[in-house]
Amino acid sequence: MANSIFKLIYFVELVLISAVRTSATVKYRRLSTAEDHTTRQDLILLFINGLGMIIPLLFVFSSSLDFFNYTLPDWTGWIGAVLFAAAAALLWKTHQDLGRNWTPSLGFRQDHSLVTKGIFKTIRHPMYAAHLLWAIAQPLLLHNWIAGFSFLAAFLPQYLLRVNDEEKMMLNKFGAEYREYIKRTGRLVPLIWK
């Protein structure tokens, strides 16, 4: 019974996260990207990331992956629900603070500015932090070796292969201003000491 509740919670929160992303995409789709740094690797990683979001829907709406189920106490599902909600809130806040500077791919808008306020005051990559929370929440909500860990398996390569490129891109664009920003912020979590 609890497994069904957690599947429902997962689906509702996935819809919520999708609405946040779709809203930002629709709002800023008319703005052109002045500099596009997207590579074939980025496109492949985005595709894999998408699979990490779609595979759990097989588990939620069918029994095709049930052979790979595992059992955890119900309280872990509630922790997963809270973490997933936190991921959705962080993703929403990130999009709000980025505003017109957000691009769905690696690149810069015309008159792109370095965002250092809001969530960006303490975290350089809050969107990746949101995805990490999501990746931790998913196996706590979906007790299945494939569906539960699919987003983590998709997210880690994207993060490990892309975040350094993003930082180099920002350093090239904003130079000393970005170097100073790095010193006072954490990559995924706020700095505890400086």
What does it look like?
With 194 residues, the chain is mainly alpha-helical. The protein has a single domain (2-27, 37-184), classed as Four Helix Bundle (Hemerythrin (Met), subunit A) (Up-down Bundle), CATH 1.20.120.1630. It has six helices and two strands. The protein has a two-stranded antiparallel sheet with strand order 1-2. The chain is elongated, with a radius of gyration of 18 Å.
Kindly estimate the percentage of residues that lie in beta strands according to DSSP. Answer: under 5%
Number of helices: 6
- In angstroms, what is the radius of gyration? 18 Å
Biggest sheet descriptor: 2 strands, antiparallel
Task: State the CATH architecture.
Answer: Up-down Bundle
Main β-sheet, spatial strand arrangement: 1-2
CATH fold annotation: Four Helix Bundle (Hemerythrin (Met), subunit A)
Number of separate domains = 1
Which CATH C-level class is it?
Answer: Mainly Alpha
Which blocks of ≥5 consecutive residues have pLDDT under 50? Answer: none
Gap between N and C termini: 47 Å
Provide mean pLDDT, rounded.
90
How much helical structure, as a percent, in the residues? 55-70%
**Globular, elongated, flat, extended or rod-shaped: what is the shape?**
elongated
Structural class: mainly alpha
List SSEs in N-to-C order.
HEHHEHHH
β-strand number: 2
Which characteristics define this entry?
194 residues, mainly alpha, Four Helix Bundle (Hemerythrin (Met), subunit A), two-stranded antiparallel sheet, 6 helices
Give the helix/strand layout.
Layout: H1 2-28, E1 33-36, H2 40-61, H3 74-98, E2 107-109, H4 126-141, H5 145-174, H6 176-184
Antiparallel strand pairs: 1-2
